[in-house]
Structures are given as C-alpha cells and as structure tokens.
Amino acid sequence: MHAHDLSRLAEQIKQWGRALGFAAVGISDGDLAEAEAGLLAWLERGFHGEMDYMAAHGTKRSRPAELVPGTVRIISARLDYFPPAGADPHTVLADAQAAYVSRYALGRDYHKVLRQRLQALADQISAAVGEHRYRVFTDSAPVMEVALATQSGLGWRGKHTLLLNRQHGSWFFLGEIYTDLPLPVDAPEAGHCGTCRACLDVCPTQAIVAPYSLDARRCISYLTIELKGSIPPELRPLIGNRIYGCDDCQLVCPWNRFAQTAELPDFAVRNGLDGARLVELFAWSEADFNERLAGSPIRRIGHERWLRNIAVALGNASPSPDIRAALSAKLNHPSATVREHVVWALARQSAGH
Q: How far apart are CA 20 and CA 13, in angstroms?
C-alpha cells in the first residue's frame, strides 16, 4: 500500500473503532526500549509479588515483534467502563458494612466485551486490505498496554501507573491489535500530573512507593485478586471494606472529574454489587457464587478467595452480633485459608478493633 492509502486506512480504523464503541484509537510503532528498562527494574525489586507471569515471557512483553513475528505497528483502543447508574463509591467506602467492589468489575467480564469489539475492528481491516498478519490482545498475554497506549497518544501514565486522559480520566479499559501493516503512527501525549500527589497520599496501604512506581505486594487489588494464599495480617486492617480491587487512587485523581460513563450496557451493575451488604455476600454458597457471578471477572478468583476477602472486611467493620454470627458459621469451613481469616476477623470483632 502507498503512504497515502495507509494514512487513509489509519483514519478509517479510528472511525470504525469509534463506531464499535471505543472512545479512541491510536497507533504506535511498539518501540518500548525505555519501558523495558523500567519493567526489568520493577521485577528486580520483586514488586510483582506472586505474579510470576510478569517475568515468565522474557522480552516478549516489551518487544512486540518477538511476541508476534512480523509486527510493526500496534493499534491501541480505549473503552470507557464506569457504570452510569451505580451507587456513589465514596458512600460505599464510608459504610463499613457494605462491600466495595472495584467499579470495573460490577458488570460483564471486560475481556469478552473488549475482545469482541477488537476482533470486529480487525475483521473490518481485513475486509479493507485483504489478508494480513495480526493478533488481538485483551489483557490476555504479555503486553505492556499502558506504555503502548501512551506511545499511541491515548493518554499518559499517571503517578499511580494507570493511563490518564484529559477528557476521560482513567475509568477505561485498554486493548490492542498487533499488525504487520506499516500504518502512520500517532504522537505521544506529554504528562499532565504536575506536582499532584493525591494518588500517592490516598493509597490505604501506601503501595505507590514513589511517583510511577507501584509495589504490587501492598496493593489492595493484588491482595484481593492476584494473591492466592493468606493476606499479610499487617495489611488486613488497611483493606477496609474493599473485597475485590481498589479504586482509591482513581477516585481522588483530579482528571477523573472529566471521566465519561460507559455507553455499553455490558458494564451496567449486576447483582447489586455496587453496594451489597457484607453479611449477605458472605452467606453465598459456592453454587451461589458461581451462578450469580457467571460472566463476571470476579468469578475467576473462586469462592475461597471471595470468602477470605469478605472475612477481612467483616473483621474491619464495626462490632455487630450479626457479623459475629456470620463469621462463626464459617469457623469449620473446609478451607484452611478461610478459617484463618475468619478467626482473625472474629478476634477483631471481639476486641472492638
């Protein structure tokens, strides 16, 4: 294809992306040399914790052409997810007997939603240019999506390490199409965090150890989602009522005043999880958990971690006979991990913290 045709195709790709529900689409060349150095330093410090997959693929994560041979461009896309009709997150966080679930997980599993639309975009490209080599990614392979999105002009990396955009804040998902089409690339956007350190100061566990540096081992999202075993006792009181993920660094970010709510019905709140009561969720059997959370990203942590997380939140709630009764009912749970956290929570309840 001639340069003019490639330029026109790039504009068409962005138009097609917007028609599919993406807030924006950008294109980069995938040169991640600087990001690779940062990744290696982060891994060297052990900040990835038990997320062994972060180190398992060598340089494939930071060298797109090693992951997908022939790749010369990466098409990055943003998809807004903040639910338009959910309970106010600040209100939920302030209610110690309510369960806080990260806003991204209140609706349908984003992997499926994002992948379907990215595949539809790839299909449109194929229909326009014929056969070409590409691969679609939705947080499902070793891809440095924030670095790629930054390169493609979709925003800049905030001090909390998430991508920020002046018109959309940070409440969005990212997805990529690796392609062998030599499309024209977009200019990266400069950072706009300035001297602000709101995200660093608000983090309950001080997981953001420095601007742009996150120790995942202290991050509540890691502790409630990625960590498979016991949550460190010293961090449990800091988790509060957050049972799946944490949004504090996003909730305090000034740029999220401009964030857009999700247009897709897929991200509407399901099962009343935008402010459900801890005691009610703790009573769910494994069958309840699997049935009610079918199609939800939460289901992947399993019922055991679900109960572990809620037990911690119940231990952090104000002392209550209902909470003590709910916890006592799980003292003989088959899981040693659940029992350990229940015993801890009961001790907290008995001591009135």
A: 11
What's the whole-number mean pLDDT along residues 259-284? 96
Is 246 known to sit in a ligand binding site?
yes
Residue 139 among the catalytic residues: yes
Instruction: Tell me what the mean pLDDT of segment 154-165 comes to.
Output: 98
Among candidates 70, 69, 76, 63, which has minimal Cα distance to 34?
A: 63
| Cα–Cα distance for residue pair 185/319, rounded to 1 Å | 57
* Mean pLDDT computed over every residue of the chain: 96
Please give the pLDDT value at position 86: 93
Active-site hit among 29, 139, 266, 322: 139
CA within 13 Å, CB half, 308: 24
Q: Tell whether 80 is in a known binding site.
A: no
- Is 139 marked as a binding-site residue? yes
Query: Where in the chain do CATH 1.25.10 domains reside?
Result: 277-353
Residues 6+ apart with CB under 8 A from 340: 230
Q: What is the CATH number of domain 277-353?
A: 1.25.10
Residue 157, annotated as binding a ligand:
no
What band does 141 get if pLDDT is binned at 50, 70 and 90? confident
